[in-house]
Amino acid sequence: MPTPFYVTTPIYYVNDAPHIGHAYTTVAADTLARWRRLWGDDVVFLTGTDEHGLKVQRAAEAQGVTPAEWADRTSERFREAWRLLDITNTDFIRTTEPRHYAAVSEFLQRVHDNGYIELDTYEGLYCVHCEAYYAEDELVGGTNCPIHDRPVDHVTEENYFFRLSRFTDRLLEHYERHPEAVQPDTRRNEVLGFIKQGLRDFSMSRTSITWGIPLPWDPAHVTYVWFDALFNYCTAIGYGSDRARFDRYWPVDYHLVGKDILRFHAVFWPAMLMAAGEAPPTCVFAHGYLLVGGEKMSKTRLNQIAPADLVAGFGSDGFRYHFLADQRFGPDGDFSYEAMVARYNADLANNFGNLANRVLNMAVNYCGGVVPDTRADGPLMAAAAAAFTGATTAMERLDYAAACGAVWDLIRATNAYIEDTEPWKLHKAGDVAAVHGVLGDCLESLRIVALLAAPVIPRAGAELWRRLGLPGRPEDARLPGAAAWGGLPVGAPLEKGDPLFPRFEPPVA
Ligand code: MSP
After folding, report:
1. CA 463 – ligand 1 centroid, Å
2. Does any domain span residue 327?
3. Can the peptide bond before residue 307 be classed as cis, meaning omega within 30 degrees of 0?
4. Could you say which of 129, 174, 259, 296 is catalytic?
5. Choosing from 52, 100, 130, 436, which is the catalytic residue?
6. Which of 230, 491, 212 is nearest to 367 (CA)?
7. 148 catalytic, yes or no?
8. Omega cis (within 30) before 281
9. I need a surface site. Which of 215, 288, 346, 464 has the fewest CB within 10 A?
């Protein structure tokens, strides 16, 4: 029975169109899902849209349509963006679906029955954009939300409260025992610091809006959007409808999130699960912001970039590679178009693409168009083993940049090997065995490159695989066996072709 592996992205608000920030998390999750499939895991990869709450209700009103119509429209735009980026999610959840209503209702009733939800009055400072209350000392300049830098609203409500305060010790104990449950370490420290201050109960229902899931025991209230949204992760794997399936995939292996929603995922969410008697997530991994011009993207700053704008020039592979290789998955990073062009040309057009062309051309010309029967078993053998180990250990800590680095080291080693051995000279000298040996090694190295790079650049990985005469697609292969030296079948037909990554010349303004 294959090992179950469950990875999620946040479900994105439908008040906004998809931009490269959303795509960043989604591409990272997709690469992890593809990587785990190579290891033979039974992968569930979930993404979706978060469709309730005041923010969405207001966005719909501003457009003069119902929230449901607005949600339909925008949710579809996310699906389109993920198709464009070759995202292989196995499910797409919308919080307005009947399956989610049913699962959330059951979960709410459970938490209520367990005594963790109670009626109370609350007065506080609320940021609509975060859909969260803030304490006065958390505000910027005494008036503004620390995340959005916009004025908060003063709100008084009689609401149901989730008794988060009762979970302070249990959460600390949990993180003590499972230091890997929040990553990277800086984020873990942030979470621990927040919990240690003591947790406050929070309001988990609203009477001021209607766009949400009614509480099963008091339908005059709708569920607070975060309380409903977080539960999507359980709905999708069968909570309330298929307990065996739920137990197979829960607890989730990775929730990938941006640092803006760390607190919800690493404090509220595990407590909510504990309140219902379920296990907390195995790991919440929070990455930094992708900044544009040094600032977080937002509608009001008019600095959002749509994935389609970049895919048009760089392709889906070029997009994916850039965001994974260009910065560490963890800290903030600035997006720059110039850097994207430079990296595309250097790493994809030159290193990857030229190597593939060069090796395939020589092999077609000097080895009769098929994989030769000789290998030199030269230095590339060790380089390939190092690439595999490097990529594997990097992926264990979700260090995508280091994983790409390990594969590109093999590409560079292969280019250097060609320079050193000069197969064209060996060919001229008529040393057939030597030419075959050197090119046999290079082809073998290309196979391992195609395999290990495929989770990041699936199109080019599959095309190179095909040109090497390999059957199926890289994703049909299984690690670790497939990364072993010598997997290329002798006599397989080779194919030259157009450049895998044509050089990018920026349009002249
Ligand atoms: N709906 C909530 C999440 C609920 S999950 C149960 C939400 N939605 S969101 O549309 O605002 O998406 C936020 C997420 O999008 C971030 O956590 C991050 O994963 C991604 N990003 C949005 N902007 C981003 C950047 N500028 N940079 C990196 N990631 C960004 O919050």
Report:
1. 33
2. no
3. no
4. 296
5. 130
6. 491
7. yes
8. no
9. 346
Helix (H) or strand (E) holding 284: strand 284-287
Number of domains forming the structure of the chain: 1
The structure's pTM equals 0.94
- Ligand 1 centroid–CA 399 distance in Å is 20
State the residue range of the domain holding 450: 338-483
Classify residue 92: in a domain, yes or no: no
User: Each residue of 318-356: pLDDT tens digit?
Assistant: 999 999 999 889 899 999 999 999 999 999 999 999 999
pLDDT digits (tens, 9 = 90+) for 131-140: 888 888 899 9
pLDDT of amino acid 375: 85
Q: What is the pLDDT of residue 509?
A: 62
CATH number of the domain bearing residue 450: 1.10.730.10
Residue 265 appears among annotated catalytic residues? no
**In this structure, is residue 129 part of a structural domain?**
no
Q: Structure tokens of 288?
A: 């930094």
Q: Which residues line ligand 1 (CB under 6 A)?
A: 10-13, 21-22, 24-25, 50, 229-230, 232, 257-258, 260-261, 289-290, 296-297
Encoded tokens for 15? 């008040």
Residue 260 CA to ligand 1 centre (angstroms): 7
Atom 20 in ligand 1: which residue has the minimum CA distance?
Answer: 22
Active site residue 496: no
